[in-house]
Amino acid sequence: MQIEAQERDDVLLRRSAKGDEAAFAELYRRHQAPLYRFALRMSGNVWAAEEIVQDVFMTLIRDPKKFDAGRGALRSYLYGITRNRVMKHLERVPREWLHEEIDEENASQAGPGFDVKTPVEWLELHERREQVRAAVLELPVEFREAVVLCGLEELSYEEAAQLLDCPVGTIRSRLHRGRALLLAKLEMLRDAPRRASASR
Amino acid sequence: MTCEEFELAGLDLETLREGDSVQIAAREHLRVCPHCAALQENWQTLQADLHAMGAETREAEAPPRVELRLRQEYRTRHKSLKARRVAVFAGWSLAAAAVIVAAVSWISWRKEAHQGAVQQAAVVKQKATSAGNAGQGVNLNGTEPAGPEIGETLVASNDAGEFTLLPGSLPGTLEDATVVRVQMQRGALDALGLTVNEERASDLIQVDLLVGDDGQPQAVRLAQAPN
């Protein structure tokens, strides 16, 4: 069956529920990447993110009628399931480091906005990134969500509010608190080596 | 602008509109407050780090094996669902067919039974009528009945009642039967195979007998009182 690019999600889901595999595949391709990134950035673990995405779409296969188009977009619904799965994962495994294999390739590049001239600079940059990553993963979940969606995924406050099903003001305040916590944490991390070298 | 206000609204200077009053106040505050200037600098560095971190995983997506596993699961589920639907449909169809067959058979059996009974009644009635006519013919010939006596053969004057087949009689053997009215003791009915009230066995009763070709009574009815 032919799938139109602009075919609405709920139409595709209805077709998928009736056994149209192409419709299901199209839905998967449309939504898997942002959900995977969200799960990855929230959990810091590629295996967990993979499992979470699989679990989310498994729910869609098993019980497609759970989605009510009148209550919101499929994207928000899928984000909701992903958030629940992430929470469950974090309850089981409180914090994990972002798996090295993700940035194996990117680690060799400095990334946007960075002009690395020497290996020492590269090392410093790499270390700082690791610190930021760790600090993000240590944030309380509600602040982490806001930072991940608005800071990393670069969604607008309105989009993030829609996905997290909360008012824009809540997103704004969570983001503000998240930033403050991140700054405090990084400040501490950066000061620690300085203090250590000063005491020597 | 105070330091607290700056922290709340001024950190994202670039997101504020150029010439916005908050932006102007924030810039002014930055010039006079080294603490907030340092905070702003740290925030910009952090933002750049976050941006870079986001860029590292911007193209990240679930590995193709996830899609393969999901499609496999999808196929398995829908195949079994389809098979289950077919089985349920077939089951219901069979049940419906069985009900229809049973209903049709019952209706036709009822119809046949009813027709058989009607035909049997018609045959008996026809025989009784023809026998009655014959008896009346005898009466017309001047043999006046001299009143009922035991053992006297009488012609039935009223054949409207139903005959009861005596045990061992077949409806087919009644084609040439004749009706005779006899007066007999009630106990004599026992000899014809009918159940008799023993207490009144000696009572005299009038019965119409349907007598076959062989002279044997085939059916019996209690004679009705003439109007």
In brief, what are we looking at here?
The complex is a heterodimer of chains A (200) and B (227). Chain A is an all-alpha fold and 200 residues long.
In terms of topology, how is this protein built?
The complex is a heterodimer of chains A (200) and B (227).
Chain A: H1 9-17, H2 21-43, H3 46-62, H4 74-92, H5 104-107, H6 119-138, H7 141-152, H8 157-164, H9 168-199
Helix pairs in contact in A: 1-2, 2-3, 2-4, 3-4, 6-9, 7-9, 8-9
Chain B: H1 3-10, H2 21-32, H3 34-56, H4 64-140, E1 164-165, E2 178-185, E3 204-211, E4 217-222
Antiparallel strand pairs in B: 1-4, 2-3, 3-4
Structure, explained:
The complex is a heterodimer of chains A (200) and B (227). Chain A has 200 residues and is mainly alpha-helical. Chain A folds into two domains: 9-92, Rna Polymerase Sigma Factor, Chain: A (Orthogonal Bundle), CATH 1.10.1740; 112-199, Winged helix-like DNA-binding domain superfamily/Winged helix DNA-binding domain (Arc Repressor Mutant, subunit A, Orthogonal Bundle), CATH 1.10.10.10. Helix content of chain A is 72%, strand content 0%. In chain A, helix 8 crosses helix 9. The longest helix of chain A is centred in the C-terminal third of the chain and has 32 residues, at 168-199. Chain A is elongated and about 55 Å long. Chain B is an alpha+beta fold. Chain B has a domain at 3-56. Helix content of chain B is 53%, strand content 11%. Chain B has a four-stranded antiparallel beta sheet, with helices on one face. The longest helix of chain B is centred in the middle third of the chain and has 77 residues, at 64-140. At the A-B interface, helix 2, helix 3, helix 6, helix 7 and helix 9 of A face helix 3 and helix 4 of B.
